[in-house]
Amino acid sequence: MTDGLPTEIDLSRPSAARVYDYFLGGAHNFEIDRQLAEQIASMTPNLAATMRAGREFLRRAVRALLDAGIDQFLDIGSGIPTVGNVHEVAQAANPKARVVYVDIDPVAVAHSRELLAGNDLTGVIHADLRQPEAILAASRAMGLLDLDRPVGILLAGVVHFVPDADRPADLLATLRAAAAPGSFLVVSHSTFEDQPQEMLDAQRLSARTATEITLRSRAEITGFFGDWTILEPGVVHMPLWRPDSPSDVDAHPERFGAFGGVARYDQPAG
Ligand SMILES: C[S@@+](CC[C@H](N)C(=O)[O-])C[C@H]1O[C@@H](n2cnc3c(N)ncnc32)[C@H](O)[C@@H]1O
């Protein structure tokens, strides 16, 4: 332990990042992760599609931020690098775009560092969303992001790993307070709203990973944006957030079990 975070890979329990990697077809997972993944998958047959819907939402949100002129991103809970990573999406549109990835999972961090070696405009931080000041201090020290300029803060599929006892709304308020006007916040978050029972049962299985998922209401998730301006179409089931084409929207967008939204920090008048 150097930074208060686990550096050893704990093979006695499944890891959320490695279970997620398995669902996305990655190679960075172990038997204990695959067993839990298969159990969750057998209970929620559309889980792989859900994971893809999450990545697709993130891609569309990052593109929207790039269109708005954002050229630096802080991606917290970034996970194990898979195809369509934020820096790939961002640097395809703007080769000078900078991305700092943050994750609590040592496997995710190690693989991110390996994948990004040689990409000078990206960095990786091993840190916990529950310590936002440490994330901000580490990203300042890294010198890649300039927090005096607008930044895109990305929290895709991660805030539901923070239980209410750790005051997620306060953590997000700390991150928002460090951002300059013109910054954006992207959040996607699992919900119990509009969900069938089998989805709720699968969620209970997450208690076996190092981090349990807390499902939240649309109102709670909307609250994470504070007083920032929520962009159209609001906090919606992920496929409904600015689909590339209307035909991309599933007949049951609620079946992916997560809301997504994007907000902008508008300079207060006066
Ligand atoms: C479901 S994955 C999402 C990956 C990526 N953001 C995406 O949308 O495709 C969630 C990630 O959040 C990380 N995570 C969970 N709790 C965290 C915390 N307290 N601080 C930082 N990362 C965390 C996990 O290790 C995992 O890699």
List keywords for this structure.
globular, 270 residues, SAM-dependent_MTases_sf, SAM_dep_MeTrfase_SAV2177_type, binds S-adenosylmethionine, S-adenosyl methyltransferase, alpha/beta, 8 strands
What is the CATH architecture term? 3-Layer(aba) Sandwich
End-to-end Cα distance, whole Å, is 47 Å
Structural class: alpha/beta
Let me know the average pLDDT: 89
Query: How many domain regions?
Result: 1
According to CATH, what is the class? Alpha Beta
Oligomeric form of this entry? single chain
Quick summary:
The chain has helices spanning 16-23, 31-43, 47-67, 86-93, 106-116, 132-142, 168-177, 197-205, 218-223; strands at 72-76, 98-103, 122-126, 152-156, 184-190, 229-230, 236-237, 258-264. By secondary structure, the chain is an alpha/beta fold.
What secondary-structure arrangement, pairings included, does this model have?
Blueprint: H1 16-23, H2 31-43, H3 47-67, E1 72-76, H4 86-93, E2 98-103, H5 106-116, E3 122-126, H6 132-142, E4 152-156, H7 168-177, E5 184-190, H8 197-205, H9 218-223, E6 229-230, E7 236-237, E8 258-264
Parallel strand pairs: 1-2, 1-4, 2-3, 4-5
Antiparallel strand pairs: 5-8, 6-8, 7-8
Pfam family, one: Methyltransf_19
InterPro entries: SAM-dependent_MTases_sf, SAM_dep_MeTrfase_SAV2177_type
Protein name: S-adenosyl methyltransferase
Structure, explained:
With 270 residues, the protein is α/β, with parallel strands linked by helices. The chain has one domain (45-265): 3-Layer(aba) Sandwich (Rossmann fold), CATH 3.40.50. It has helices spanning 16-23, 31-43, 47-67, 86-93, 106-116, 132-142, 168-177, 197-205, 218-223; strands spanning 72-76, 98-103, 122-126, 152-156, 184-190, 229-230, 236-237, 258-264. Strands 1, 2, 3, 4, 5, 6, 7 and 8 form an eight-stranded mixed beta sheet that branches. Helix 4 (86-93) links the parallel strand 1 (72-76) and strand 2 (98-103). The model has no long low-confidence stretch (mean pLDDT 89). S-adenosylmethionine binds next to helix 1 and helix 3.
